[in-house]
Amino acid sequence: MILNMMLNSKQKITSLVFIQVFLIIGSFLTLTYIESEWLILGNSINNAGLNRFLSASVMLGLHSSYEHNSDVSLDMIRDNFYLLKNGGYVGDDKIRAMPDELMPYWETAFADFEILEKNILAYNLPQGNTSELHSTIDSNYMNLLKSSDDMASQISIFLEEKNTLLIQLQIIFLIVNSAVHIFLVFVIFRILNKVSEEKIRLEKFAIIGKLGATIAHDLRNPLTVIKGSVDLLKLKKEKSLSEKEENEFKKIDDAIENIDYLTKDVLNFAKTSQLHLEQIGLLQIIKKSINEINVPNHIKIILPENDSQIKADKIKIQIVISNLIKNAIEAIDGDGVITIGLIDGLDSVLLTITDTGRGMDANTLSSIFEPLFTTKMNGTGLGLVSCKRIIDEHGGSIEVLTNPTRFFIHLLKK
């Protein structure tokens, strides 16, 4: 059992560590992606500045005496504007498409370029070479320089804002990762602590079991002798027993029965034999358990109307049912009812045992499956612990609610 628990704990811890690793990797990749995308947008600043250089080249050609092809430069400016808008590559450098927030600045600069282009083309015509048009082109050129500079400036501001957001994201991811890390350390500590507590508990069980089994075994032999001797004495004096003597013999019988009950509790707890699984009907086991118990006349037991088949160790399941019915009988003062139910599921069966007894307080409810805990004057505190261990060995579970007291036992069909 402890081995299975350690394996389960190892799986849980491994899963938690993987969650932490994936979270760290996810945070890193997210930040890297965002940073790389904004870095690519940073390349646009250089191309926005390139408009100034190309425009200056066009103007230089207009003012110089050497031959200059302004159409080529104008095409280069236009291509550069479309590159800024749609994105693309300049050599090995990638240019990201202009974000929607910056498109108004691109449109203003592109409109200034189209005006400049229109006037330059008119200026190159034979009839268009006038000083007035030349002055207009100079004004257009200055407008294009200003709008291109505004566009480059806005890209820089945009990137600064995103860089601030990136720093904020880094801080958020750092806080989240730190919080998750602290939480995971806490959870892992709880898991390891639970394994340690379970190991100590099982070691305590083992010590109690070995000691109890030795004492119980040593008690049964003299107990058998005492019972046999009392039975012989009763036979010899059967016809001449006074009422007082009958009461004394009854006290002896009750004491022997109590000791026998206690030794059975201890031996059941100490017994760790392998499960002998077979297909059994729970209704038959329930009836057999009741037949072996002395049920008082003032207590009525209601049996389930249906039956459920499970694969289990019938001897051990009978021990569980007998123990729970005995406890229910002892919990009832005066007249009472014990109701046993069976709910058949797809893969499991739910066995319920409900009594109309006095119920349990919160302390009893929380400690009911702890070894040596008992509310009975003559109890061992091992009966319910044995029941839980048997159900655990079958891969099932046992739970209890109070007011009224109701035990829920989940048993697998296979």
Strand order of the largest sheet: 4-6-7-9-8
Shape: rod-shaped
Structural class: alpha+beta
In sequence order, what are the helices and strands, one letter per element? HHEEHHHEHEEHEEHHEE
Q: Quick one: how many beta strands?
A: 9
> Largest beta sheet, briefly?
5 strands, mixed
Mean pLDDT figure:
77
* Whole-number tally of structural domains: 2
Query: How helix-rich are the residues, as a percent range?
Result: 55-70%
Q: Specify Rg, calculated over alpha carbons.
A: 45 Å
**CATH architecture tag of the largest domain:** Up-down Bundle
Q: Tell me, what is the CATH class of the largest domain?
A: Mainly Alpha
**Share in β-strands:** 5-15%
Task: Flag low-confidence runs.
Answer: 1-7
Distance between the termini: 19 Å
Total DSSP helices: 9
CATH topology of the largest domain: Four Helix Bundle (Hemerythrin (Met), subunit A)
